[in-house]
Write a structure and sequence with these properties.
The protein contains 30 helices and 6 strands. The protein has about 750 residues and is mainly α. A two-stranded antiparallel sheet has the order 1-6. It has a two-stranded antiparallel sheet with strand order 2-3. A hairpin with a 2-residue loop joins strand 4 and strand 5. The protein is elongated, with a radius of gyration of 35 Å.
Length: about 750
């Protein structure tokens, strides 16, 4: 059966290869599973897709040679990744050691982040995979030049890439060098696009040699290892190109080792069955059916019906493998040993007995497979809801809907609750095809592998996420820095932070705070101060920096918490008043700092700043909203009520009433008008009969939500968050490490 394929432009699969064992246990004869004379599966060595993995497949003079290796379910899976810059003239499948996983440059300049070995494309200053203009620029059309310029500037512009590929194919239909250039560079950025790997291979088949086609397919399965379609195309190519059945079977086994347990793996199994039917190798056909019946998949019922049809049409003797036949012969020989040759009557009875025995063996043969089928159906009933909710199993740059994202989390929760580690790893890899652009799933994967003690897998996933799939998103680099810090890789953590500071998101407040906190924990307090000072200097050079006031406020808070130096903390805030526009976070920080200092308080100074903030004029342009100014005025009133005198309270009270009482009354009037407009005439009449009391001046502003609960100075205060561009959303998978950037000085925080 030919599997349905997605359009060429559709995108699918994954970059990672997970095998179930180290690739060093060679099985020279990958024969089908052995089944005892009773029909029981006694060995699946070298054949079971869940229990085998290719160790080596090399393209050499038109021959694809592969070695299948046996695995042990208890072994930790091995991950292999594709280096976009590697020469794939001859490419064996080889596992990555923990030291081979690409990482950050340990230098603090952070201007260049590159992989330390296999597994990741290099990352340049701006966080993009290394891109170069084609050498022969003169041979480009104007449109090609324009599109190359776009993707060189922004290598993640998917639409520009597809337009460039179309334009190159249109203008250079027969120029394989230009076609290779555009596909190589595009697939270094988007290695999950299985459709483009197939198009690339088709171009090589049209313009080059079969060796080059095999080379592209080999790169493709290294880059999109969990794509059923990619393996299907590779196997179809091998069938049509190479005549050696053993070579073809080894490639099928290699494919099934990685995608044979995928819920949608049936196209590949169908192709394998189809091939063995064409070879008239009935023992192998029966063995394939036995294996697929062990796997919950979308077409499980069809496979069971196909197996029963096979058994009905072929005698059991044709379905047994050589090993099974030998085992049966040995068993019969032991039973007949020492018996006297039968006479004619006894011979007739023996024939009848043998016939009954054959029927019993056939019944048992089918019953064993039926039991495998029922067990798979039972597990299928538990996961069918999750599988049905996966509407887009392939990769695409468009975002997934919330329901599908939630479903992946729920599915992962379910599988993690089981005891099959290989299922966990493979489901994560499937998830990270569709969800490759979502940092929270990478973070969850890394944490799961860390918890399981599989640090090699954790580091590999972290490298892929930071260097390829979500390399432009700050939260994955902040997570990487924290992860490396926790595991003693201080230079790697510093490089990750520096990469955010200089390349990913310069001026990101969360990155500055976390980096400074780490340096403080390491005893490098001056380095921590230097981080703040450098960030402040950079922000000062920007026009109307929204980060600068919050940066000063956080710096002051940090200084006070780690050193207790109130004079320096005040001096930093004073510098902020001179260097940055007044803002609610900055003034709130000043009020909070003063609130926890011993008497005398700097009441007049604070009051003058709040007055300047709340009463904007032509000389003091203020972009703060009325709500922000009113809220800060309320905070000042609370502060003065605790620490001021009667005159200072009266002054602030009067100013607040004058500024915000009329605004509040107008707002409430508008609200009442809107409500009156919506209610019925009868309701309006009943409302007009209800007496109301006149609003009081005192009740106008105290009724607004008060940030400071009664007893300020005793209860902890909430720190206002940074702006939307600064705040980072961390998924629940990283909930234990959520960091909220706050800019208020709470009492408990200052009592650090």
């Amino acid at each position: 059966m030919t599997a349905p394929t997605s359009p060429v432009g559709q995108i699918d699969a994954s970059i990672t290869v997970v095998s179930d064992a180290p690739a060093n246990k060679n099985v020279t004869d990958p024969s089908p599973a052995s089944v005892s004379n009773t029909g029981e599966v006694v060995s699946t060595e070298g054949v079971n897709a869940a229990d085998s993995v290719a160790n080596d497949l090399k393209t050499d003079a038109g021959n694809v040679n592969a070695t299948i290796v046996n695995i042990n379910h208890q072994e930790t899976p091995v991950i292999m990744t594709y280096d976009a810059n590697e020469n794939f003239a001859t490419l064996p499948n080889s596992s990555l050691g923990s030291t081979q996983v690409g990482g950050y440059d340990s230098s603090l300049n952070g201007n260049n982040v590159s992989g330390a070995g296999d597994g990741a494309a290099s990352i340049s200053e701006n966080g993009t995979a290394a891109l170069h203009q084609p050498l022969d620029v003169s041979g480009l059309s104007a449109e090609e030049e324009r599109l190359w310029s776009i993707v060189t500037t922004n290598s993640l512009d998917f639409d520009a890439w597809t337009a460039l590929i179309d334009e190159t194919e249109r203008m250079s239909e027969g120029n394989i060098s230009k076609i290779r250039k555009v596909y190589d560079t595009f697939l270094a950025e988007f290695p999950l696009c299985y459709g483009y790997w197939k198009k690339y291979a088709d171009h090589e088949a049209r313009l080059s040699s079969m060796d080059k086609v095999a080379e592209v397919y080999e790169r493709a399965v290294q880059g999109v290892t969990y794509s059923v379609d990619m393996w299907l195309h590779y196997c179809s190519f091998t069938i049509s190109t190479y005549g050696d059945p053993d070579t073809i079977r080894r490639l099928f086994e290699r494919a099934l080792a990685y995608v044979g347990t995928d819920y949608l793996c049936f196209p590949l199994w169908d192709k394998y069955i189809e091939y063995e039917y064409s070879q008239q190798d009935w023992p192998r056909v029966a063995t394939i059916y036995t294996r697929v019946l062990e796997i919950p998949n979308q077409q499980l019922d069809r496979y069971f019906e196909g197996f029963k049809e096979l058994v009905a049409n072929r005698p059991l003797s044709e379905l047994r493998t050589a090993e099974e036949a030998a085992a049966l012969a040995a068993a019969n020989s032991e039973e007949n040993e020492g018996e006297v040759p039968p006479n004619a009557v006894e011979q007739s009875s023996t024939v009848l007995s043998a016939s009954l025995k054959d029927a019993e063996e056939l019944e048992k043969y089918i019953a064993i497979r039926e039991e495998l089928y029922k067990k798979s159906k039972d597990f299928d009933s538990k996961i069918i809801g999750f599988e049905a909710a996966i509407r887009r199993p392939y990769f695409h740059v468009r975002p997934l809907n919330v329901a599908e994202l939630e479903n992946w989390h729920n599915y992962l929760d379910f599988i993690e609750g089981g005891d099959d580690f290989n299922k966990v790893v493979k489901l994560y890899e499937r998830c990270l095809i569709a969800c490759a652009r979502y940092p929270e799933y990478w973070i969850r994967y890394v944490l799961c592998m860390e918890t399981s003690g599989s640090m090699e897998l954790a580091e590999n996933a972290l490298a892929r996420s930071t260097q390829v799939f979500v390399k432009r998103q700050p939260e994955i680099h902040l997570f990487a820095a924290r992860f490396k810090d926790q595991h003693g890789d201080i230079s790697g953590a510093r490089a990750a932070y520096q990469h955010v500071h200089t390349g990913i998101s310069p001026g990101l407040l969360e990155a500055i705070i976390k980096h400074a906190n780490m340096e403080h924990r390491l005893g490098k307090l001056e380095d921590a101060y230097s981080l703040y000072e450098q960030a402040i200097a950079i922000e000062k050079g920007k026009e109307q920096s929204q980060t600068l006031p919050m940066l000063f406020a956080q710096y002051s808070r940090f200084v006070y918490l780690v050193s207790g130096n109130v004079d320096k903390a005040r001096e930093i805030l004073a510098r902020a008043v001179e260097s940055a526009s007044l803002s609610k976070p900055l003034l709130e920080a000043m009020i909070h700092l003063e609130s926890i200092q011993p008497l005398p308080k700097r009441i007049e100074y604070i009051d003058s700043l709040v007055e300047k903030f709340t009463i904007p004029n032509s000389e003091n342009f203020n972009v703060a909203s009325v709500e922000e100014r009113e809220e800060l005025s309320n905070i000042l009133l609370e502060f003065l009520d605790l620490f001021g005198d009667a005159q200072s309270v009266k002054k602030a009270d009067y100013r607040h009433s004058k500024l915000f009482l009329s605004h509040k009354s107008t707002a409430e009037s508008r609200k009442r008008h809107a409500e009156d407009y919506l209610v019925s005439d009868r309701t309006k009449l009943s409302k007009s009969l209800i007496p109301t009391s006149a609003p009081s001046v005192m009740g106008a502003y105290p009724s607004t939500p008060n940030q400071w609960a009664t007893g300020y100075g005793v209860q902890p205060q909430a720190w206002p968050q940074a702006s939307q561009t600064q705040a980072q959303q961390w998924n629940v998978g990283y909930a234990q490490q959520v960091f909220v950037v706050s800019l208020s000085f709470s009492v408990l925080s200052f009592c650090f």
